[in-house]
Amino acid sequence: MTTDFMQELSTLVRQNNQIAPDLYSLYQVKRGLRDDNGAGVLVGLTEIGEVHGYVIDEGEPVPVPGRLLYRGYNLEDLVTAAFAEGRMGFEEIAFLLLFGQLPTVDQLTAFRKLLASYYELPGSLLEDNIMRTPSPDLMNKLAHSVLSLYAYDDNADDNSVENVVRQSIALLARMPVMASYGYQVKSHYYLGQSLVIHQIDPCLSHAENLLHLTRDNSEYTTLEAHALDVMMMIHAEHGGGNNSTFTTHVVSTTGTDTYSAVTAAICSLKGPRHGGATLAGARMMADLKASVEDWTDENAVRDYLKALLNGEAFDKSGLIYGFGHAVYTASDPRAVLLCDMAIKLAAEKGRTAEMDLYLLVERLVPEVFHEVKHTDQVISANVDYFSGFVYDILGIPSDLYAPLFAVSRVAGWCAHRLEEIIVGGKIMRPAYKSVVKHRNYVPLGERR
After folding, report:
1. With left for phi above 0 and alpha for psi between -120 and 50, is residue 350 left, alpha or beta?
2. What pLDDT shows up at residue 385?
3. What percent of the chain is helix, strand and coil (3-state, nearest 5)?
């Protein structure tokens, strides 16, 4: 097929896929499944996650400090308690999300042992799927690996609660392994580095194993492990309306298998408007560091932020990545927790100057946004703003930012899949109205 003909076909696609914007208002279409005020259209009920970012006062949204609740528990309380007690908390949160209540000591111990029993990848998955088919994109590799697990499951299509619980636990255990091995294989085949495949340690937590598997020397500090554990805890769930979790609900209503549903969620999360935002924020901050000589110069930093909003800096998009959210207004509770962890990590690693820059930008962005955009809209840092910095301090390669998001969020995805199987019952099928004019058929020889 010639380049000219390909261009012709692309032009036809553009020409024949134009819908007048006013038609969306005429037919009251909720674009992006959102109301005119930006709030999500209510399409379901859940007991798993609750995202709270504002209150309605006389019909108007009023900003309030954000809250994220898992099964009715405030995430801040869960994270703070685990860190204060000097233990890893992700497995506890996964239990809470999947089974609806906080585990006892005995239940948590048994759950950790059950997860460890599923760590080992089945059959020849490592050799045939991961090592022999490296991918330049680790989210695609992770999706491929999850879908390949179907072939190793004798009851893959059994959607009974008991079987989906088993599959969910197995996925929760194996996704960190598949993501880590996918990275090591990419590093070898695409970046020319030595191939390092560590055996997973059944005595370690998810966060500790991820550091063990992704680092050549397997070494890490206690604070580093706690930092990654906190990262996993805050990414484990975010309500039923975020794109990847909603995808899990949609695909699950068709009656498909667990591996297909989770693969679809991974493909959704891969998008730069969803799970890829952390990397964009990290790259923006790297550009700021390179562009501003004195990071303590508030005027220079302010000028850079203005250039961002005016489309004159970084990727010229006019966006300041890591700020603003569809639900949170006054604050993102995940960002608050991560900021505290980033301060601790930066002190341990001698990177307080960068931390101070992050805090300065966080303070200046709302001021610059109001000045340039001439709006009183409340804007605050979101989880993506500090995520990239924490990952960078931990030495996590940028290739793994989105996969580690998926490794954490699979707990929420599987919880929502189980909820859909138990209380759903109907295949999701929203309506699309056709607005094309009806046309008469023209014989092939008469077309021009």
Report:
1. left
2. 94
3. 60, 5, 35
pLDDT score, position 217:
94
3-class secondary structure per residue, 121-176: CCCCHHHHHHHCCCCCCHHHHHHHHHHHHHHHCCCCCCCCHHHHHHHHHHHHHHHH
Greatest C-alpha distance within the chain: 79
* Other beta carbons less than 10 A from residue 168's beta carbon: 22
Q: Which two tokens stand for residue 108?
A: 């948590």
Q: What is the 3-class SS of 43-81, one letter each residue?
A: CCCCCCEEEEEEEEECCEEEEEEEEEEECCEEHHHHHHH
Calpha distance 180→168 (Å, rounded): 19
Q: Whole-angstrom Cα distance, residue 254 to residue 160?
A: 14
pLDDT of residue 1: 55
Q: In what order do the strands lie in the sheet with 49-57?
A: 49-57, 60-70, 73-74
Kindly tell me the sign of the dihedral angle through the C-alpha atoms of 291, 293, 296, 302. negative
- The tokens for 276 are 């890829």
What pTM does this model have? 0.94
Q: Return the residue matching tokens 């261009």.
A: 7
Regions of the chain short of the pLDDT cut 70: 1, 58
Alpha helices in 328-399 (DSSP H): 333-349, 352-373, 383-393
Q: Measuring CA to CA, which residue among 304, 307, 312, 319 is closest to residue 361?
A: 304
